[in-house]
Specification:
By secondary structure, the protein is an all-alpha fold. Helix content is 66%, strand content 0%.
Length: 178
């Protein structure tokens, strides 16, 4: 059942957000464009952003699996707070990966409508994080999550390594999902 749920989540979630909706919007807009708005280096930058976003998503999934003892899927959410690596700079790097991919697609395909989708998606993700994900994580992890939130920004990465985050890492909280 978990495999089926994972496949369904992958199709409905990321596949829809990153492929189906952009393709639909490009067809709907009927905007004739060359890749990269006719500028090869812009198209190349778009491809670079797309791959950075994909690599970040894969890296976050690996971190969730090995250090959070879970996955991005709702039915097998991490059992530990992720506070190391990219999670020591920003609380929701997976959301950044989605935005990087959409930005890359907008540049690569040379489609202004995808910039509109990027802005709309950023707003949607912000609402999901603030109204669902953050409260749920606070309920699951309690004081450790609150302390982590005080040290690590939600959206805009803080690249100055915070030594206090190391203290949070040592106080991992395990959640029993049974």
């Amino acid at each position: 059942m978990k495999l089926t749920d994972g496949i369904l989540y992958g199709f409905v979630g990321p596949f829809s957000v990153l492929y189906i909706i952009p393709q639909f919007l490009m067809k709907l807009s009927n905007f004739k464009s060359q890749g990269g708005f006719g500028i090869p280096v812009v198209e190349l930058c778009g491809l670079l952003f797309l791959w950075i976003g994909a690599a970040l998503a894969i890296w976050c999934t690996i971190l969730m699996n090995f250090f959070g003892e879970g996955t991005p899927f709702v039915n097998s959410a991490p059992r530990k707070i992720l506070t190391r690596n990219v999670y020591s700079y920003v609380r929701h790097p997976m959301m950044w990966s989605l935005l990087f991919v959409i930005f890359g697609e907008a540049l690569m395909y040379g489609q202004p409508i995808l910039f509109v989708w990027l802005i709309a998606l950023a707003r949607i993700l912000r609402l999901i994080v603030s109204n669902y994900e953050e409260p749920q994580l606070e309920r699951r992890f309690g004081e450790s999550w609150t302390e982590y939130c005080q040290k690590v920004p939600c959206w805009f990465p803080n690249f100055r390594k915070n030594k206090v985050t190391a203290a949070i890492i040592s106080q991992r909280v395990e959640i029993d999902h049974d």
